[in-house]
Design a protein that fits this description.
38% of the residues lie in helices and 22% in strands. It is of the alpha/beta class.
Length: 496
């Protein structure tokens, strides 16, 4: 796929020019260059895509009614095609998002595994079977899982390929028909993914792609009464407006939202290990990670040693063109860079102590890109904006505690509840603290590892529902109970 081509909207198995008359310029954030232009979908395109998905699900029914063995086999074939295209997909994410190439390759590998996982899971029968007596006589009762119907899916830009796969793989495996919209900041790997859908033999109308702004295209997807379910990954504010839009026809809603996750480090932790994981926790993917360990909460007695070592490691990080595999690439856009730098300013004004970083990097080859130094703020307090709000960049705050109770109070002092970690060599303390952290994804003595098999999602304002694992498939399924009367005739009214 040549990056300079005009790309198109995919409706009912046909690639069409987006009808909005507006072009989206895809920018490489490492250089500021436009690497592709894409025609944006109109609201009419959205309606057509929804109509195609509706026809696919309720009339044609070829994907929905396909036996799970065959549907799973198509997804396995897709995974093989994606494996063939792995380098191209990874390169597209790096060029558009700015993440180091090896991280993009890891995302694509995870996504391929995700399709294989759900291709297998859909073939596994599960659900309860009960023999009950409900007062009417003996009943045989069982559960049936069915696809929800037409699913609208909307994703952010920080893991363009992987966030698409986390939604598309379970929804398609379950037999739904989908209309998908990526973030305008990163569309190219999704377009390639849909080209591969076509090659794999996913029938027309079962998977449709629209491209364009949330304010027009996304809003229409969330509000349409022909959509049975909307799933969204992005900021909490957008999630709230999607939830309101979904109320019109009480469509099912799945939300994966923002975070401000605590990384709690006790004095008995392995210091060197805790520093390395804390680095991964905040600087992986330039800190543009919903689950980033953006609030370090460290025991007072090791605070000085910990911060000194963390700063030493942060200053030594390489930042550069992500195709060259530095430790960090640029932020995704000028707008995101300016947003992050504005938070740095706010941190300084509100009295946090800047230990390292805090500036845009413009030397040499970085001149036209959106590079920001790895940044550490110390002496932070819970009322500071940089501690309360999601920055979504390479900026971490440090707070200190003396007691376990104080650590937990700081950790949970947030409206978010996506993730959290604890570092300690005391296993009972680790389990006690994890039990008390109000978050959906937690780690002990590590930060960030995630598996397709394990459920992903947030407590509190970080979301509703779960992706990945068995839960991720169940999100895209309705459950029906079927009750069969085994007692001949009418037993009578309730006997109890
Ligand atoms: P965003 O909310 O600005 O946009 C996300 C998507 O929603 C984009 O495709 C956008 O076009 C669309 N959109 C915007 N307004 C809309 C509206 N009113 N109706 C429908 N769609 C609309 O988020 P972003 O800046 O792209 O991504 C960063 C955010 O995503 C962060 O808050 C991050 O924490 C979150 N995120 C969460 C997870 C998770 O798993 N919980 C994963 C990745 C990112």
């Amino acid at each position: 796929m040549s990056e300079k081509m005009h790309k198109r909207t995919y409706i009912d198995g046909v690639w069409v020019e987006g009808g909005s008359g507006r072009l989206l310029e895809c920018e490489n954030p490492a250089t500021g260059e436009v690497i592709a232009t894409v025609t944006q979908s109109s609201v009419e395109d959205v309606e057509a895509a929804i109509a195609a998905a509706k026809k696919s699900f309720y009339q044609t029914r070829d994907w929905r009614d396909m036996d799970s063995q065959t549907r799973g086999d198509i997804l396995l074939h897709l995974a093989d095609i994606l494996e063939r295209d792995r380098d191209e997909l990874a390169r597209l994410d790096t060029l558009e998002n700015g993440k180091p190439l090896r991280e993009a390759e890891g995302d694509v590998d995870d996504g391929i595994h995700c399709f294989r996982y759900y291709a297998g899971l859909i073939k596994v029968p599960y659900g309860g079977v009960y023999d009950v007596n409900a007062g009417f006589g003996t009943m045989h009762s069982y559960e049936v899982r069915e696809p929800v119907g037409v699913c609208a899916q909307i994703t952010p830009w920080n893991y363009p390929f992987l966030m698409a796969v986390w939604k598309l793989a379970p929804a398609l495996a379950a037999g739904n028909s989908v209309v998908f919209k990526p973030s305008s900041n990163a569309v190219l790997s999704t377009i390639k993914l849909f080209e591969d859908f076509e090659e794999a033999g996913i029938p027309a109308g079962a998977a449709n792609l629209v491209i364009g702004p949330g304010s027009t295209v996304g809003v229409r997807m969330a509000a349409s009464s022909d959509v049975d379910m909307v799933t969204f990954t992005g900021s909490t504010a957008t999630g709230q407006s999607i939830m309101r839009a979904a109320a019109g026809n009480v469509k099912k809603v799945g939300l994966e939202l923002g975070g401000k996750s605590p990384n709690v480090i006790f004095a008995d932790a392995d210091l060197e290990g805790a520093v390395e994981w804390a680095m991964i926790g905040i600087f992986f993917n330039q800190g543009e990670v919903c689950s980033a360990g953006s609030r370090i909460i460290v025991e007072e007695s090791i605070h000085d040693a910990f911060v000194a070592r963390l700063a030493e490691r942060a200053r030594a990080m390489t930042v550069g063109n992500p195709l060259d595999n530095p430790d960090m690439g640029p932020l995704v856009s000028r707008q995101q860079m300016e947003r992050v730098l504005a938070y740095v300013e706010k941190g300084l004004v509100e009295g946090a102590k800047l230990v390292c970083g805090g500036h845009r990097m413009t030397e040499g080859d970085l001149a036209h890109g959106y590079f920001v130094e790895p940044t550490i703020f110390d002496a932070c307090t819970s009322d500071m904006t940089i501690v309360r709000e999601e920055i979504f960049g390479p900026v971490v705050t440090v707070q200190t505690f003396r007691t376990e109770a104080e650590a937990l109070e700081l950790a949970n002092d947030t409206p978010y509840g996506l993730a959290g970690a604890v570092f300690t060599s005391d296993v009972t303390r680790a389990l006690r603290v994890i039990k008390e952290i109000r978050a959906g994804i937690t780690w002990v003595n590590c930060y960030n590892p995630t598996f397709n098999e394990a459920p992903w999602g947030g407590y509190k304002m970080s979301g509703i529902g779960r992706e990945l694992g068995v839960h991720g498939l169940e999100e895209y399924q309705e459950v029906k109970q079927v009750n069969i009367n085994l007692t001949p005739g009418v037993v009578g009214w309730y006997e109890h």
